[in-house]
Amino acid sequence: MGKYKGKIVGFPGDLLSIITKKYPINNFLETGTNLGDTAEWACNKFNVVYTCEPSGHFYNLALKRLNKYKNCNLYNLDSLSFFNSIMESLLGNSIFWLDSHYNVDELSYGKSVENPLIKEVEYISKLNGDKYIVIDDFRQMLFPDEPTYVHGWPPLYKIINALNLLSDNFVMAVPDCLISLPNKCIPIIRKYRKRIRRFE
Ligand SMILES: C[S@@+](CC[C@H](N)C(=O)[O-])C[C@H]1O[C@@H](n2cnc3c(N)ncnc32)[C@H](O)[C@@H]1O
């Protein structure tokens, strides 16, 4: 996820807005808050937002920005500790925006730890209820900056295998994200795909 001319790019917010109108989704969960760009977008759309940032530097910047949103729950934790802290108290359906990775920035967390994506997906697969998962940076999974996976994403086949644990969901890519949505969203995706095709 990034910003271009002040706009969030790479994040399929338009698709999530369409889905949320049809299916009630109470919570937005994000791993890797960074500066809080997407968290702020979500605070204006969802009843409750949970987001985590283990880097003290980015946590403090995000805290200043997101403090005014009463529905925002920001944690200074890595994603797996964050999941352990909140999952039991989660009510209703949730969107998971998985974006916790080292950001080629000394102040970013994660340079010397394993990318947590597979464990995050395995964790989510065990939860009850509908799961709407959006994973950022699909292009990096196809053509990584770091082909040995040391600081980057796990191999794509491992990510897909983990997503296949969610048997009631289907998996596809929307431009720079890998998504796993409940099968009932297939008609929405068909319409969305047609709309995107008009701009291709
Ligand atoms: C690309 S940025 C996130 C951008 C943000 N999600 C957005 O949409 O605006 C990635 C962030 O993940 C954080 N991070 C790295 N490893 C993490 C982990 N294990 N758990 C949670 N966050 C992590 C980094 O410190 C960095 O701030």
What can you see in these coordinates?
By secondary structure, the chain is an alpha/beta fold. The protein is built from eight helices and nine strands. It has a single domain, classed as Vaccinia Virus protein VP39 (Rossmann fold). The chain is globular. The model has no long low-confidence stretch (mean pLDDT 90). It has helices at residues 13-22, 37-43, 56-66, 79-86, 117-125, 138-142, 156-163, 186-197, and strands spanning 2-4, 7-9, 27-31, 48-52, 72-75, 94-98, 131-136, 169-174, 177-182. 35% of the residues lie in helices and 22% in strands. The strands form two sheets. A seven-stranded mixed β-sheet has the order 5-4-3-6-7-9-8, with helices on both faces. Strands 1-2 form a two-stranded antiparallel sheet.
